[in-house]
Every structure is written in C-alpha cells, then in structure tokens.
Amino acid sequence: MLTGLSLSTVALLLVAGVVLDLLLGETRRWHPLVGFGNLASFIERRLNRDNLRLPRGSLAWALAVLPLSILFVVLTDVAGLWLHAVLLYLCIGLRSLRDHTIPIYAALRSGDLAQARALTARIVSRDTANASESDLAKASAESLLENGNDAVFGTLFWFILLGGPGAVLFRLANTLDAMWGYRSTRFNLFGRPAARIDDVMNYVPARLTALSYVLLAGAGRASAWHCWRTQAPAWSSPNAGPVMASGAGALGVSLGGAAVYDGEVEQRPPLGAGPAACAGDIQRAWRLVLRTTLLWLGVVCLLAVLTMIGAPHA
C-alpha cells in the first residue's frame, strides 16, 4: 500500500468506514462536501473570468483540492489510524444512495407519482415535472449505477491506495467535476481541468466497477459484458459509459434513451437490454450496488488474510 499501512490494516479500516456509513448515514447538520462546495464556489467566482479561463481553471482546482488533501495527510499522521476510517465514512455515499432512491421506489409502488417526481428531481438534473413511472425508474436506476462508482467504488479504490487522504482527494476531485465539468459558455474552458482530472482518477475504478457488475449479473453475465463492450463507446463520458452499460445489462433492463433537460428532449445512447425500467428496478439497482460493495470488501479482506498466512514468521 502506498500509505505504508499493511493490507490487513487497510481491510480493517475499510470495513470500519463502510459500517459507519451504513449505520450513521450522512451527517445531518453540516456535511464536509457541502462546505467544500461553498469554498469551490468562492474560488470559482474570483478566478473564472477573462480570456485565461483554462489556466485559471487549473489554478482553481489546485487551490481547492491540494491544501485540503495535504492537510489530511498531516492529520492522519498525527491523529492515528482511526482518522482514516472517519475520513472514509465522511467521503463514501453508500447509505446516501439508498436513502435518496428507495423512497422513490416506495412512492412509485404506492402510486404517488407526484412525490416520486419531487424526490427524483433531488438526485438528477433532468426535468421530472411530467415524467412517467418508467422515466422516474430509469432516472433513479441510472443514478444508482453511475453514482455507485462515483460515491462508493472510486472512493474505496483511492482509499485502498492512499488511505483516508486518498478518499478525500478523490471525492474533492469528483465534486469539482460535478460543479465545473460542463460544456457551457461559463465552464467549457475553466472546468476542463476538473473534468479531465476526474476522468483520469476514475478510469480504473470505473472499469473495476463495470467488471464487478458483470461478475454479479448471474445468468445475465454475458449480456452485461456485451452491453459494456458495445454500448459504452457511444457515451460521451469515458467512465460513465462502461459503468452504466454493464449495470443495465446486469439488471436486464433498458436504460438510456430519451430524457428531458431544460425543456428539450435529448436522445441518449441506449443502455442495457430488456424491458423498460419499472419501480422494482430501483430496488434491484440498489441491491447490485450493495452486493458490489460487499464483493470489494470481501476481496480485500481475503487478500489480507492470504497475505498474513503467507508472511514469514519470526
């Protein structure tokens, strides 16, 4: 491990952080990523101007991310191992994914379309005012699959490599991509460094996530693999494509396609294969993300045990 921690220690801290997240969920009063978002907005308002947007975007990314990441490297050295688990808890969003999507499933099952629309609008940027049950189920399932990588598996990957500071680094970079990584007049140049850095940091985790979705697809394993290899290249995002295509294939459901943004219908490439999404697919997508989390924890713990068994004894 690049942290200098043994694999057994990393495995223990990994499990502790995930358990804390499942038990406690997001902090109620003040979430660190919300505070970071306010800091990022402050920096962006002061640097995103004139014709030097690209270098200013690089500077803004460095000012927002690097001091905090270095600070947490120092703090973990001073405070001890427990802070690594706390940082993972603060960065990971497994419980949050469930808390934001399962109520949509429950609203759809009870026939409360208005409530389902309002809840879905909180997690996606597309218009939901006139969305059907299938539209809402599709949006929620897509959000679960993609954010499974962004909020969970990418965080776990960088934690394994760099400990708590690695999880912080990844989530801060991912947050800046979500805030600045748009091809709009305001952000096309300024946000490009944030988008490219996130692409690089997410490249390996996204493919490990896609592979995990394939392995957990059961009888749909071949379909999940086929969807990944044939559908992912059509998506503009190099990392969302593999994750969402393999996940949709694993669920045996059709996602992608038409979605409404700012009143305009956007035709997106198809994802998966099978019937159109329904309410039950939200719950199935959540279970796939949870099972993938358990798979990752199990693999790391197994490797830790094998390493301990194979280590020479004094």
TrEMBL record:
Molecular function GO labels: ABC-type vitamin B12 transporter activity; ligase activity; threonine-phosphate decarboxylase activity
Gene Ontology CC annotations of this record: plasma membrane
Example GO BP: cobalamin biosynthetic process
Keyword Cell division applies: no
Pathway the protein takes part in: Cofactor biosynthesis; adenosylcobalamin biosynthesis
Main location: membrane
InterPro entries: Cobalamin_biosynth_CobD/CbiB
Protein keywords: Cell membrane, Cobalamin biosynthesis, Ligase, Membrane, Transmembrane, Transmembrane helix
Membrane topology category: Multi-pass membrane protein
Locations listed in the record: Cell membrane
Transmembrane regions listed in the UniProt entry: 59-90, 151-173, 293-311
Family designation: Belongs to the CobD/CbiB family.
Biological role stated in the UniProt entry: Converts cobyric acid to cobinamide by the addition of aminopropanol on the F carboxylic group.
Protein name: Cobalamin biosynthesis protein CobD
Species of provenance: Massilia aurea
Gene: cobD
